[in-house]
Design a protein that fits this description.
This protein has a single domain, classed as Rossmann fold (3-Layer(aba) Sandwich). The chain has 13 helices and twelve strands. The strands form three sheets. Strands 3-2-1-4-5-6-10 form a seven-stranded parallel beta sheet, sandwiched between helices. Strand 5, helix 6 and strand 6 form a beta-alpha-beta unit. The longest helix is centred in the N-terminal third of the chain and has 24 residues. It is globular, with a radius of gyration of 20 Å. The two termini are about 25 Å apart. It binds nicotinamide-adenine-dinucleotide and thymidine-5'-diphospho-beta-D-xylose. Nicotinamide-adenine-dinucleotide (NAD) binds next to helix 1, helix 4, strand 5 and strand 7.
C-alpha cells in the first residue's frame, strides 16, 4: 500500500483530494497542515477516522517537524498544496505568502530530497513530488489566446509571484538534484467547502443573508472555472501517469466574466431559495482590486491528449451542485462564519491526539 503525504489537506482543494483518495483508492494519506484560518478539519469529518487517514498539524516551514514527518511516514509521493491562496490577502499582507509559498516549498523540497536519497530500488525510482500551482503565474491575457505550458511567467500579484517562485524552485530541484517532480497549474476552482472569502462562496452566502454582492470594478474580468472534484481527479491522473519534469495545465474551458458568475448564482438562488428573490438586486459595484488581472484562460489540450483527463462537470452542473451544497450544509457554514471551526478543530485534534 502506497503512502501519500499531502500538504494543505485541510484546505479547499486539499480536502477534496483527501476525500477522493480515501474513498476511491487504496492509498494511505498523511495530511500535513498547519491549520491556518483556511484549514478546516470539519471538511474532513467523513474520512477523519478512516484507518488509511492520518493528520499531522505541522507548519511546512518547520524543517525539523517536516523531517520527522518524512521519517515517520516514509511516503511514496508528496502532493504539495499547502499555500496562502487568497490574492486580496496577499495585497494587504504579503509576508505570509513569501514565508509559506516560497520558504515552505523550499523546506519541503529539501526534506523530500533527503528522503528520496535515502530510498532504494523501485521505491526510489517511483517516488514523486507533485507541486500544485496556479495559472496566475502566467499573468494576464488580453481578449484573445490561452495559457499553454510554454507561456512565459509574468506574475502580477504578491500571491502569484510567490507561487511562481515556488514553481521555479521545484523546477530547479529537478534539474539540479534530479528530484522526480511534476507540476500542475490550474485555473480557478469552485465547489463545496470553499472558504467564503473567495468570489463564489462569498456571493452565495451574502445573497442568502440579504447582504451586498461586491463586484470589483465593472465585473468584466474573466476567470476560467473548474469544479474542484474535477481538479482533484486531474491531480490524481498527473500523480499516477504524468511524465517526470513536465508541467500540465488544468482548466475547465469555462470562461466567464465575474458579473456572469454572480448573475448565474443569483438565478440559481431565485429558484432554489426564492426568499429574497430577485437576488441580483444585491449586486454592488465596489473599488477594483489593485493590479487586477483581466483575463485567465487555460489551454488544457496537453493533459487531455497525453493523460486522457477532461472535466466531468460543466459550469452549469457544477454551480448548481455548489449552490445546493451551501444551502444544505449549514453546520459547516455556521462553523466557518462564526469562527467556531478553529475552536472545534483545536478541541477535537487535541482530544484525538491525546486519546
Ligand atoms: P486554501 O487556502 O483553501 O488551503 C490552503 C491550506 O494550506 C489550508 O488548509 C492551510 O491551513 C494550509 N497551510 C497554509 N500555510 C501552511 C503552512 N505554512 N504549513 C502547512 N499548511 C499550511 O487553498 P486552496 O484553494 O485549497 O489551494 C490549494 C493549492 O492549490 C494552493 O497551492 C493554491 O495555490 C493552488 N491553487 C488554487 C486554486 C483555487 O482556485 N483555489 C487554483 C489553482 C491552484
Ligand atoms: O468580493 C469579490 N468580488 C470580486 O469581484 C471577490 C472576493 C472577488 N472578486 C473578483 C476578483 C477576481 O477577478 O472575482 C474574481 C475571483 O476572485 P477570487 O475568488 O478571489 O479568486 P482569484 O483572485 O481569481 O484567485 C483564485 O483562483 C486562482 C484563487 O483564490 C487562487 O488561489 C487561485 O490560484
Amino acid at each position: 500500500m502506497k503512502t501519500l503525504l499531502i500538504t494543505g489537506g485541510a484546505g479547499f482543494i486539499g480536502s477534496a483530494v483527501v476525500r477522493q483518495l480515501i474513498n476511491d483508492t487504496q492509498y494511505k494519506v498523511v495530511n500535513v497542515d498547519k491549520l491556518t484560518y483556511a484549514g478546516n478539519l470539519q471538511s474532513l469529518i467523513s474520512v477523519s477516522t478512516h484507518p488509511r487517514y492520518k493528520f499531522e498539524q505541522v507548519d511546512i516551514c518547520d524543517a525539523a517537524e517536516v523531517a520527522r514527518v518524512f521519517r515517520e511516514h516514509q511516503p511514496d509521493a508528496v502532493m504539495h498544496l499547502a499555500a496562502e491562496s487568497h490574492v486580496d490577502r496577499s495585497i494587504t499582507g504579503p509576508a505570509d505568502f513569501i514565508q509559506t509559498n516560497i520558504v515552505g516549498t523550499y523546506t519541503l523540497l529539501e526534506a523530500a530530497r533527503a528522503h528520496w536519497n535515502s530510498l532504494e530500488g523501485e521505491r526510489k525510482a517511483n517516488f514523486r513530488f507533485h507541486h500544485i500551482s496556479t495559472d496566475e503565474v502566467y499573468g494576464s491575457l488580453g481578449d484573445e489566446g490561452f495559457f499553454t505550458e510554454e507561456t512565459a511567467y509574468e506574475p502580477n500579484s504578491p500571491y502569484s509571484a510567490s507561487k511562481a517562485s515556488s514553481d521555479h524552485l521545484v523546477r530547479a530541484w529537478h534539474h539540479t538534484y534530479g528530484l522526480p517532480v511534476v507540476t500542475t497549474n490550474c485555473s480557478n476552482n469552485y465547489g463545496p467547502y470553499h472558504f467564503p472569502e473567495k468570489l463564489i462562496p462569498l456571493v452565495i452566502l451574502n445573497a442568502v443573508n440579504g447582504k451586498p454582492l461586491p463586484i470589483y470594478g465593472k465585473g468584466d474580468n474573466i476567470r476560467d472555472w473548474l469544479y474542484v472534484d474535477d481538479h482533484a481527479r486531474a491531480l490524481r491522473t498527473v500523480l499516477e501517469t504524468g511524465k517526470l519534469g513536465e508541467t500540465y495545465n488544468i482548466g475547465g474551458w469555462n470562461e466567464k466574466t465575474n458579473l456572469e458568475v454572480v448573475q448565474a448564482i443569483c438565478a440559481l438562488l431565485d429558484e432554489l431559495h426564492p426568499q429574497g428573490a430577485p437576488h441580483a438586486k444585491l449586486i454592488t459595484y465596489v473599488a477594483d482590486r489593485a493590479g487586477h488581472d483581466k483575463r485567465y484562460a487555460i489551454d488544457a489540450t496537453k493533459i487531455a491528449a497525453d493523460l486522457g483527463w477532461k472535466p466531468q462537470e460543466t459550469f452549469e452542473t457544477g454551480l448548481r451542485k455548489t449552490v445546493a451544497w451551501y444551502l444544505t450544509n449549514t453546520d459547516w457554514i455556521k462553523g466557518v462564519t462564526s469562527g467556531d471551526y478553529q475552536k472545534w478543530v483545536q478541541q477535537n485534534y487535541t482530544e484525538r491526539s491525546t486519546a
